[in-house]
Automatic annotation (TrEMBL):
Lineage: Bacteria, Bacillati, Actinomycetota, Actinomycetes, Pseudonocardiales
Transmembrane feature ranges: 29-50, 62-85, 105-132, 144-168, 174-193, 200-217, 237-259
UniProt membrane topology term: Multi-pass membrane protein
Keywords: Membrane, Transmembrane, Transmembrane helix
Species, as recorded: Amycolatopsis acidicola
Name of the protein in question: ABC transporter permease
Ion transport is among the record's keywords: no
Compartment(s) where it occurs, according to its Swiss-Prot or TrEMBL record: Membrane
Amino acid sequence: MNATWAPVRAGVRHGLIELRQLFFDSHHIVVTAISTGIFFAAMVFTRTVAVPGTGFPLGVMMLPGVLGMTLGINGIATMAGSLAVEREDGTLLRARTVPGGVTGYVVGKVVMLSCSTVVTAALTLGVGFAVFPELVTHGAGSWLTLVVVLVLGLAATLPAGIVIGPLLPNSHSFGLVMFPLYAVAATSGVFYPLTRFPEWLQYVGQVFPIYWLGLLARSALLPADLAATEIGGSWRYGAAVAVLAVWAIAGASLAPPLLRRMTRQESGSKLLSRRDKAMQRVG
């Protein structure tokens, strides 16, 4: 039992160390502050625009959707990008040489990204409640729904990031993840009700977890009558949980074999070859 859990414990410790380093990384703090500020500026700017068919501010409706988008981007893009970068710098190769090292590595990434995402979501909510008095909660049910959003969101997106990471050709391919994710967010009802999009785009948006995370977050933070602006005129809790669970199960099934394949393909000669090519580009 000790041998089984030792990599997990090591991964948790390493994840907490990475989390502490992340919170003291000035570059990360500045980038996060700027991106969050841009979203809040857009929300404030569109506060005078009403959600179609209601008198509710469009900018306020955007905040729960941004929470869902944050979960999606942190879970999928950041995890995939980390795998691509640390495959190239030799981190994964070193982890493979230690018994249980790859398990510890994955656990550490999950701990770090989960904690940082929760902190980001909490700060976004705190600022949101301070800036937008129109946000409401429906007692304990709202907070329970937000917990479900966080747990299911991380379960659905982190494995997806592990699946995508090994498929990226190199660490410079981050845009191959980010651009499609922002396109998905734009068609997931994050910034505008999905019911106002063409019907075929509505079907596309409902395939991905960002829409369902935003829907659940909206159900927790917006007045109940805003459900009329959603597809089917309701919050569709059952469908949201089912879709997110499918994503979580599919990701958890595909991630381990793809990660094992990636680590098996790594070698010292490949690492040296990549470094030589990098030096030639710099030179």
